[in-house]
Amino acid sequence: MSRGPLKCKIGPSILNADLSNLYAESQKLLDSGADYLHLDVMDGHFVPNLTLGHPVVKCLRNRIRNTLFEAHMMVDEPEKWVEPMADAGINQYTFHVEATKEVLPLCRKIKEAGMQVGIALKPGTGIEAVRQYVDNADMILIMTVEPGFGGQKFMTDMMPKVQWLRHNYPLLDIEVDGGVGLNTITACAEAGANMIVAGTAIIDALDQRAVIASLRETVESSIHKCNV
Questions:
Q1: Phi and psi, residue 41, nearest 5°
Q2: Would residue 173 show up in a list of annotated catalytic residues for this protein?
Q3: For residue range 140-167, what is the model confidence (pLDDT) as tens digits?
């Protein structure tokens, strides 16, 4: 897969936003400098929580036309939701390697539906679980908390997974998600993450623009070393 130079991308997780004002909250994040929106989809089975699904995504897409939407599918049987999410306007479909035995067929199905492929790893899953699939993915997501709930503490011991990926795949998009904020962004950036999901740290900030700019500055200074 051809990969261009690394770019920093900041994608707020809207899980912690005021869901009754989802469009206004999302637009405010984009106006504050966010590059994409990270939409947490949970089914109450794969993780013990239930969140938004494709009807909500479709409504949001009708209001926000040109922003990259990533669906982080924390669901059993992620195969079932490829077509509905493509129809709803998702650009990147990120599924958990733990949730399916049919990783390669699922990657193909996502591509055929016109979306980019993301593969996510829970904290307890070793990097070897995804090693053979990296070439079939557009992005690998390393979870830095247990998926399911916002506001958890960042797990620094996940950084070796990010480092391994960056060392072996210099131009791969590597995303981190969970407890990422101003206090933990340096660890993420130095390990090699370039796609940054932050929920509480951005949503609850008095100045969302300043937080996004600060996260970006930290990541871009590390990316510069990778791209040299």
A1: -110, 115
A2: no
A3: 999 999 998 777 899 999 999 999 999 9
